Amino acid sequence: MEYQLVVIIHRGEVRMRLRIYGTLILLAALLSAGPAFGLDSSSEDSAELGVQIQQANFIAPSPERDNLVEEWVEIANLGQEEIALDGWTLGDEQNHIYTFPDGFFLPPGASVKIRSGKGQDGAADLYWNSSMPIWNNSGDIATLRDASGELVDRFPR
């Protein structure tokens, strides 16, 4: 990346322009080096593993208690390797915690929806088996943690 500094001298405006150009150069340098300083929007673990929260539907159709399977968070494996999710957790701001079942693997390119309601677990859908809504309708934050409790991703970002 190449930068050019242009200084225009016109009746005492040099200081102000130098300050502006200096700030722009510093900003450009920080933006280009952002990931090296941890300024990337996604977590390092998520990028390394390829596992992230892809999307979520926090609001089930009314009446919510009758439609809890329509309240869900989707986890995707964007990496090239199968990931063992046993012991991983999905949580919200109110400390509702879902723990992935033992022996659950997410193949590369696959995704799984964790549904708040009751149902039979399968490769594409896992069920929290809750009789109450989990996610806050006015907005919530879903957090995905690995088996050691390290934050892997959050949604919305």
Explain the overall architecture.
With 157 residues, the chain is of the alpha+beta class. The protein has two domains: 1-40; 44-155, Lamin Tail domain (Immunoglobulin-like), CATH 2.60.40. It has two helices and ten strands. The chain has helices at residues 14-33, 44-49, and strands spanning 51-57, 72-77, 83-84, 89-91, 97-99, 105-106, 111-115, 125-127, 142-145, 151-155. A four-stranded mixed sheet has the order 1-2-7-8. A four-stranded antiparallel sheet has the order 5-4-9-10. Strands 3-6 form a two-stranded antiparallel sheet. The relative contact order is 0.18. Mean pLDDT is 79; it is low at 1-10 and 12-47.
